[in-house]
Amino acid sequence: MTVSYTLKVANSRFGGFSKLLFRWKGSIYKLLYKEFIVFMVLYAVLSLVYRRLLTEEQKRLYTKVAQYCNRSTDLIPMSFVLGFYVTLIVNRWWAQYTSIPLPDQLMCVISSNVHGKDERGRILRRTLIRYANLSAVLILRSISTRVLKRFPTMDHVVEAGFMTQDEHKKFESLHSDFNKYWIPCVWFTNLAAQARRDGRIRDDVALRLLMDELNLYRAKCSMLFHYDWISIPLVYTQVVTIAVYSFFAFCLIGRQFLEPLEPGQEGDLDMYVPLSTLLQFFFYAGWLKVAEQIINPFGEDDDDFETNKLIDRNLQVSLLSVDDMYQNLPPAVKDKYWNESTAQPPYTMATASETLKPSFLGSTFDMCMCEDAEQNQMVEASPSVPCIQTPRLSRFFAAASPAISIKNFSRGSRARSHVWHPQTDGGFPSPYPKRSEDLELVARIKEEEMEDEASQASEPTTPGSHLGHTRLPEASETQKKELLLIQVKAPSSESIGADGPEAWEP
Questions:
Q1: Which segments of the chain have a pLDDT < 70?
Q2: What are 419's strand-pairing partners?
Q3: β-bridge partners, 488
């Protein structure tokens, strides 16, 4: 029987979990006490042999072996190996529970779409849901020891009412080397098709809905079968088990009390009961026992699934839904809040304090907004509105390569030979046709030229100075305004060939 303690931990209080430590059924003490006793007995035997039976020379040898074993325990990654393994087992355990077929959805579809208050209609609904329950019983007999003990043979299934004698004969006459839990599902589909032909199922949409729910039900039965067939890889389970057992085998030898090798050397504290080692055994070995218990939840452990109870519940609820509750409705009347705009159910005195708490409307509901009216005005966002650029970055947006100086670009014949200007009369197209002229950039170019002219006028004229200060032709006003795009041409193969060694020969 599953051990449930949900009510005990409904409210967090002082010592809430500590009260669970004194429960025996389903506890770690019940799982681990035998292994724990064996470990303590072996530790005590080795301690007595070391203290009473070994000579001084043998104690020295044992001390070296014990130190080696104690160092070896650090080489086994217990936390990683056990943690990953138990996580995998727990996920698989919960997935198996969610794969148990429950007839709740299927019985609602049968009750609403298979019509007829006469005996024939009643037989159809009860037979359809019985076939679904029979399929679940057959698959649970294959994987659960509890169900197999309850229904050891097919005759017990017939006697329990899940199958008739004629159905048993038909079932046995179908020979297959594989599990035949799917046969009642096929009977279900054929009977549903016959009900559609007889008009008990009024349209194909209802039949399709019935088939979809049956397929989901059958898929869960199939998933249970495959979970039972495909286990956790054996090598992984073996690795984890060997890791735990070898770790504590080293601990039996390496965690013993040892006398110092040298006469004057101070030894460790003599603890007759190794508390830290026993706690470590309790945690690691208990972790392994948890995985051992839930790796197959269809057994007879305390926390295994109560499959027999599920079978009883499913049969009783499903038959009640499709038979006694078919078209058996209470009268439809006006509800209590018919004339009220807002329904407010009453509270008891124990829960009246909950009405004082405001309802949660969202995490930003109490956020303080800016009181400036200008900041809260709505503005129109349109792609045609030009982007606002800062003065410092505008010159970089205007050129493709900001590494090229604007001054050298505007007044140099060498620089001008490698630059294409966007022309307004059909030349190189501008990549920004909708962007207006950058007046600030033009003003900056004029300012730089005026500074250069002033600096040249202030320099004294010396012979030969014209060689170092050759004035280059200035760019026109139109070219200055069209410095929005700079593109440096790559040298062509002809220019590379002209600059080769052959071009310098006399």
A1: 1, 263-269, 382-442, 456-506
A2: 488
A3: 419
DSSP-derived letter for residue 6 is T
Residue 490's alpha-carbon distances to 412, 477, 487, 497, in angstroms, are 18, 27, 9, 14
Q: What is the DSSP string of 205-259?
A: HHHHHHHHHHHHHHHHHHHHHHHHHS-S-HHHHHHHHHHHHHHHHHHHHHTS---
CA 421 – CA 424 distance, rounded (Å): 10
CA angle 107, 111, 112 (to 5 degrees): 120
Based on the number of CB atoms within 10 Å of its own CB, is 448 exposed (0-12), middle (13-18) or buried (19 or more)?
middle
| Alpha carbons 31 and 56: distance in angstroms, whole number | 41
**pLDDT at residue number 283:** 92
Q: How far apart (Å, rounded) are the C-alpha atoms in residues 71 and 463? A: 90
Report how far Cα 414 is from the mean position of its chain's Cα atoms.
Answer: 63
Distance (Å, whole) CA 96 – CA 224 = 7
Separation between Cα atoms, residue 165 and residue 181, nearest integer Å: 17
* φ, ψ for residue 428, nearest 5 deg: -65, 125
Distance CA 297, CA 307 (A): 10
Q: Is residue 199 packed enough to be buried (19+ CB in 10 Å), middle (13-18) or exposed (0-12)?
A: exposed
Q: At 140, list the tokens.
A: 């649970």
pLDDT score recorded for residue 355: 82
Long-range contacts of 114-123 (CB under 8 A, 24+ apart): 114/192, 114/195, 114/200, 114/201, 114/210, 114/322, 115/200, 115/201, 115/202, 116/200, 117/326, 117/327, 120/200, 121/200, 122/323, 122/326
In the chain, what is the straight-line distance between the N-terminal and C-terminal CA atoms, in Å? 107
Burial bucket for residue 358 (CB in 10 Å: 0-12, 13-18, 19+): exposed
**Residue 173 to residue 182: CA distance in whole angstroms:** 15
- Residues contacting 232, CB < 8 A, separation 6+: 88, 89, 92, 295
Given this model, what pLDDT does residue 431 score?
A: 47
Three-class SS string for 51-66? HHHCCHHHHHHHHHHH
Q: What angle do CA 289, 291, 292 make, to 5 degrees?
A: 60
Tokens 């709505």 belong to residue: 378
Residue whose structure tokens are 């499903």: 318
Closest to 156 (Cα-Cα) out of 134, 174, 173, 177: 134
Predicted pLDDT at 481: 46
If one counts every other C-beta atom within 10 angstroms of the C-beta of residue 445, the result is 19
Q: Which pLDDT value is given to residue 392?
A: 53
Q: Which residue has the tokens 């899940």?
A: 162
